[in-house]
Write the structure tokens for this entry.
Amino acid sequence: MPGKGRLPNVHCLSQSGVRFLIKTLGYLEKNIQYPKNRNSFFQRDYYHRMATIDFNIGFQKWLGREGY
């Protein structure tokens, strides 16, 4: 990213991974969360997505410490 340097990699489930889960492990597609399309929106939304993930991890840890 120009002006910011190299961003950390983000790993997502691919279409072939989705097919594997459905065919081999019997998952229902409606229960699998994965990026439905690949467009430039992800790059524009990168920091928001990463902050959301960081918040959720921190929130889950806090809930565990508080006994929830």
